[in-house]
User: Which sequence fits this backbone?
């Protein structure tokens, strides 16, 4: 399969075809079963080293990837490089070559700068590179786990099994992405993933938080959340990235909540089976009302649990994904 | 001093190009004729199949010395310049320390004494290029500085820029502006458009440049002082300059070769080689700039040669130093832009790469000259200083890392085939490049 993840870096969702994404989802189904076992561990990647290289603060994504690696019996190493320690003359290239020389088979890279994982991949001679979030660019594993959670929930709503269901759950699916799209790597990856899987995507945000030329992404753009809500099958909420300066793009958090927040009043207008996703961490009371976040159709916690299985699938596939090595998984 | 004969070439001149040999004695062109008998002991430069014209003049090069010698030195930049056909380069003042005083000007001139081309320091407009206080322009002018700029930084304060123009203009000096409104640029590291949106990189619109162009052209109208606009990247900016020129305002502008040859799609792999300020623009803008170069709206091609060591470029795109090499390949890129249906406009080539930049930097024979510089950018006629270059348009040249004379490697043209080779360069009657090889 030309656009499969097998034996390749994962830098952008755009490198995967629909079949390539479905392959990740199917492998993740197998690993989700592993995660439900009493001893959630398989020997699949025994002897392989997964190194997380985080140039930006992250606890959730890093914990998720490291948990995934451990459940596959890989050795886990990690290097956290605070932004302040990157001094003049200490190039990213030197850091990468050092870590690879220490035996990494996979580098899981998080960086505040867009494109850094792509550069890391160019400097690696052997190791596979997985993008764990780069600047405003992409967060591929997040979009894949969102797709996984949505597929499972849609199949459950219909009483069918998600395993082996391909991309059927996404045919005609209407996804509404709300919030700070401009500064969001999750939004960029989600747009590509959902569109590749066959869904239609609408972006809804204040004009200051939409990227220039968003129409070129093959999406609809809607300025009024109330107009868009009733149609949506999935509402993906994004956090206001105040630490990336998006705070100055809206007059106040209160006004943002009033115009673009998923309040109780707005949530009441959703179709009963509309799913709500959020990549976390949530700011309750700003982009999402607390009661909405805890409602049954909000997948937030499910996304976190599914994240481990999807990241197991990613690590397994980038290292070749030979079926024989699926090991203890069925 | 040497006696030189340049044999077998075609001498390019605005009044008509003609097959001619060129005799040079003691640094001066003494005869241009269809056939010149070789004097005894003359050095012969074969120009068969080549064109002979004035040595090229670059209005905009970062030589990095003093202060950043790991990136480039005056010696290595001048060698790259000579290999590119240049006999004079204007050195930008964003060195460490900044070239904002007579002592730094004197240091750069001293470093350039035996260099492969003449180096004309540009002075800073403000002390330390900080945009706060006017630098001592008159003391720098006494050493031959005629151009003043804070290049690398824009003079953001419109009132201070007005004072700079009034002060410099009264001495017959020219200010040059790096046009970039800091607030509108908003930290953008590439052109704002579909590519920046897709790549998740902060973009800056062309308006960040154009708004300063409009403001400063207004200041020229207000003060009457001459202004040169550096590395314009937006057709809208050039259109404003052309309109101001048509009104009789003393303004000129330049374009960098990379804004003609490259576009923002080059950034799609996040290769920091392509991070440059102002940023690469969309293809339609680059093509429009090429048309404006051909129709005369743009006065000059200036390299914005900006060497950076590997450690400054082996960084994420947004954190890498902006700038790319240019001196060695600008003539070839310019020739590409001036070629229509296989015919290269050679008169225009020497106009935008030699005649006009020499006029703007006041390096022509008719200009008052200080600082030990000779005349540049004149026609190849008896009596002119023998600053010449010989270009071979019959021999395309493929750029390789190994062919770079700069101390730095950040060349965006590696692998590209340029339509010409520089065969010889002659500085003050001495070859600095012979058969494509630097002599010093």
Assistant:
């Amino acid at each position: 399969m030309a656009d499969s993840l097998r034996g390749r870096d994962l830098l952008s969702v755009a490198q995967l075809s629909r079949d390539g994404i479905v392959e990740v989802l199917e492998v993740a189904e197998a690993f989700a079963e592993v995660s439900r076992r009493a001893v959630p561990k398989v020997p699949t990647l025994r002897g392989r080293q997964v190194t997380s290289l985080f140039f930006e603060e992250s606890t959730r994504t890093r914990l998720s990837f490291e948990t995934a690696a451990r459940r596959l019996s890989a050795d886990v190493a990690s290097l956290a490089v605070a932004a302040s320690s990157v001094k003049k003359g200490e190039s990213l290239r030197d850091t990468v070559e050092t870590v690879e020389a220490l035996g990494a088979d996979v580098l899981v890279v998080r960086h505040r700068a867009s494109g850094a994982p792509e550069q890391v991949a160019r400097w690696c001679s052997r190791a596979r590179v997985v993008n764990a979030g780069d600047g405003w660019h992409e967060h591929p594993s997040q979009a894949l786990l969102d797709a996984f959670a949505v597929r499972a929930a849609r199949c459950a709503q219909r009483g069918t099994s998600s395993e082996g269901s391909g991309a059927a759950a996404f045919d005609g699916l209407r996804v509404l992405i709300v919030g700070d799209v401009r500064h969001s790597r999750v939004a960029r990856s989600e747009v590509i993933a959902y569109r590749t899987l066959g869904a239609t995507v609408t972006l809804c945000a204040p004009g200051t938080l939409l990227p220039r030329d968003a129409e070129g992404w093959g999406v609809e753009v809607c300025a009024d959340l109330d107009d868009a809500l009733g149609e949506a099958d999935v509402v993906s909420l994004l956090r206001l990235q105040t630490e990336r300066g998006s705070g100055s793009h809206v007059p106040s958090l209160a006004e943002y909540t009033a115009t673009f927040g998923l309040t109780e009043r707005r949530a009441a207008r959703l179709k009963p089976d509309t799913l709500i996703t959020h990549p976390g961490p949530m700011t309750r009371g700003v982009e999402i009302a607390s009661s909405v976040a805890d409602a049954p159709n909000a997948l937030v916690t499910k996304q976190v649990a599914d994240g481990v299985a999807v990241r197991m699938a990613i690590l397994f596939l980038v290292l070749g994904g030979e079926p024989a090595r699926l090991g203890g998984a069925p | 001093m040497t006696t030189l004969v340049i044999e077998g070439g075609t001498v390019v001149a605005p009044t008509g190009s003609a097959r001619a040999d060129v005799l040079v004695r003691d640094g001066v062109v003494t005869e241009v004729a269809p056939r010149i008998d070789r004097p005894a002991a003359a050095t012969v430069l074969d120009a068969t199949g080549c064109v002979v014209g004035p040595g090229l003049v670059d209005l905009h090069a970062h030589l990095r010395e003093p202060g950043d010698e790991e990136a480039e030195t005056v010696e290595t930049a001048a060698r790259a310049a000579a290999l590119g056909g240049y006999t004079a380069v204007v050195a930008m003042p964003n060195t460490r320390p900044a070239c904002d005083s007579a002592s730094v000007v004197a240091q750069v001139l001293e470093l350039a004494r035996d260099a492969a081309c003449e180096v004309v320091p540009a002075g800073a407009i403000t002390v330390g290029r900080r945009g706060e206080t006017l630098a001592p322009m008159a003391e720098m002018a006494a050493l031959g500085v005629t151009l003043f700029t804070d290049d690398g930084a824009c003079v953001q304060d419109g009132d201070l820029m007005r004072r700079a123009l009034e002060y410099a203009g009264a001495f017959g000096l020219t200010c040059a502006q790096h046009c970039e409104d800091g607030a509108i640029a908003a930290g953008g590291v590439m052109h704002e458009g579909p590519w920046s949106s897709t790549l998740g990189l902060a973009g800056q619109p062309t308006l960040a440049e154009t708004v300063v162009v409009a403001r400063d052209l207004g200041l020229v109208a207000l003060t009457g002082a001459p202004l040169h606009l550096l590395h314009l990247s937006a057709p809208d900016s050039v259109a404003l300059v052309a309109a101001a020129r048509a009104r009789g305002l003393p303004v000129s502008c330049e374009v960098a070769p990379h804004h003609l040859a490259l576009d923002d799609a080059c950034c799609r792999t996040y290769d920091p080689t392509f991070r440059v300020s102002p940023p690469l623009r969309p293809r339609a803008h680059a093509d429009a700039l090429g048309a404006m170069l051909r129709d005369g709206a743009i006065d000059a091609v200036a390299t914005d040669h900006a060497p950076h060591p590997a450690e400054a470029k082996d960084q994420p795109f947004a954190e890498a130093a902006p700038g790319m090499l240019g001196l060695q390949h600008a003539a070839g890129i310019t020739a590409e832009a001036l070629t229509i249906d296989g015919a290269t406009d050679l008169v225009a080539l020497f106009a935008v790469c030699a005649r006009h930049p020499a006029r703007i930097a006041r390096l022509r024979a008719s200009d008052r000259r200080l600082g030990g510089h000779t005349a540049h950018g004149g026609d190849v006629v008896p009596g002119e200083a023998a600053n010449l270059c010989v270009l071979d348009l019959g021999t395309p040249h493929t750029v390789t890392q190994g062919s770079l004379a700069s101390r730095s490697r950040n060349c965006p043209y590696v692998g590209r085939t340029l339509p010409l080779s520089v065969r010889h360069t002659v500085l003050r009657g001495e070859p600095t490049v012979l058969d494509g090889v630097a002599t010093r």
Summary: Residues 71 and 299 of chain A are 23 Å apart (CA to CA). The mean pLDDT of chain A is 92. The first strand of chain A starts at residue 49 and ends at 54.
